[in-house]
Write a structure and sequence with these properties.
Layout lengths: L3 H15 L3 H9 L5 H16 L1 H11 L9 H16 L5 H15 L2 H16 L1 H5 L7 H7 L4 H11 L1 H11 L5 E4 L7 H10 L4 E3 L6 E4 L10
Antiparallel strand pairs: 1-3, 2-3
Length: about 230
């Protein structure tokens, strides 16, 4: 069995090396993760890295003494998931993000890889505010990097909507959506269905807009529920 971080490194490697669709890569490794919370973290890391890859690679390029194209692919994925945890995951302690990434470097790299991964992640953590801070007078290129959106899209939005609105749009576009499900009231009621899903390990909340609707905050393996 794999833990969430190792599975995410393998899945991302397959996605980038073989141009595998993310949902197929996730399906390949999801079955090898036993705990629900680990499967949730696995999915968060894979999708989080893909959604923020322009920014994560920018940080690596700025901190690495090795040319980006010469970094071993597995070590590159380890750096990406480590940086994602440091910059974008509030629930993961910084020490865990660094230490678990170093453990993976010991498995998939050589002796030099360990210090390389440790050094970049600790340096990035010290300079976190510097990388994340965005000002209104920043260039479109910096907005493109910070929010991992193609530069041509950022330029188009700034021209059409202005920079203030574009920044809010970029932030919103990087927010993970919740899964909303409509309750079939001919077969069930909302409270009973919510209780049933919670008993199967899902985090359920009530939709405030639609009457017969539930929000699934961690819809992992929803198709396997009864």
């Amino acid at each position: 069995m794999l833990n969430a971080r190792e599975a995410s490194v393998k899945a991302l490697y397959d996605i980038h090396k073989d141009s595998l669709y993310s949902q197929n890569a996730i399906k390949d490794y999801d079955e090898n993760i036993s705990k629900l919370e680990d499967r949730n973290l696995f999915r968060e890391l894979v999708y989080g890295v893909l959604e923020n890859q322009i920014f994560l690679d920018y940080v690596i390029k700025n901190l690495s003494k090795i040319k980006f194209k010469k970094i071993h692919p597995m070590i590159l994925e380890i750096l990406r998931i480590g940086l994602y945890q440091l910059f974008f995951s509030d629930r993961i302690p910084e020490s865990a993000a660094v230490n678990e990434s170093v453990k993976l470097a010991k498995i998939y790299g050589h002796k030099g890889s360990i210090g390389f991964v440790n050094g970049i992640l600790r340096n990035a953590n010290r300079r976190k505010d510097e990388f994340l801070t965005i000002e209104l007078d920043d260039s479109n290129e910096k907005l493109s990097v910070r929010y991992s959106h193609p530069i041509h899209l950022v330029e188009m939005w700034v021209e059409q909507y202005g920079k203030d609105f574009t920044i809010e749009l970029l932030k919103a576009n990087n927010t993970s959506p919740k899964l909303n499900v409509r309750v079939n009231t001919l077969k069930n009621d909302k409270d009973t269905l919510a209780k049933n899903l919670e008993e199967q390990g899902l985090d359920v909340s009530t939709c405030k807009i639609a009457k017969d609707c539930l929000i699934l905050n961690n819809p992992n393996r929803i198709t396997e529920t009864k």
